[in-house]
Amino acid sequence: MKKIQDIITGIHNIQTNEDLNLIVEAVKLKRQYLERTAVRQFIVGEKVQFTNRRGVPVGGTIRKINRKYIVVDTPIGGYRVPATMLTSQEA
User: Fold this and answer.
1) Is residue 79's pLDDT more than 70?
2) Which of 48, 52, 57, 60 is deepest in the core (most CB within 10 A)?
3) Using an 8 Å Cβ cutoff, are 62 and 48 in contact?
4) Are the C-beta atoms of residues 46 and 62 closer than 8 Å to each other?
5) What is the C-alpha separation between 42 and 78, in angstroms, rounded?
């Protein structure tokens, strides 16, 4: 937690737009890396779970894997879900 606070303090000390843009770009690259790493953890046919916009857990089966999103078939329809929001369900 202290490490995060140090980073936030460092951001507050930034004086130029150029430096801030460099940080934004670094955050985007890290987010992209985490998304792609998450996608590689899943396979078609795997049982997964996610929380929908209403906060309700939804379980389903992976139908298709795209670059960022995974298509999950559920009893109430198909969802396009970011891979970072999915968790594997134990069979």
Assistant:
1) yes
2) 60
3) yes
4) yes
5) 17
Residue 58: which pLDDT band, with cuts at 50, 70 and 90?
very high
Report, as an integer, the average pLDDT of 21-25: 94
d(CA 80, CA 55): 16
Say if residues 72 and 86 touch (Cβ distance below 8 Å).
yes
The per-residue DSSP string of 58-79 comes to: EEEEEEEE-SSEEEEEETTEEE
Cβ contacts of residue 89 below 8 Å, gap of 6+? 47, 48, 49, 59
> pTM for this one?
0.71
* Amino acid residing at 83: A
- Kindly state the tokens that stand for 14: 């930034």
Strands, E assignment, 1-91: 47-51, 57-65, 69-74, 77-82, 87-88
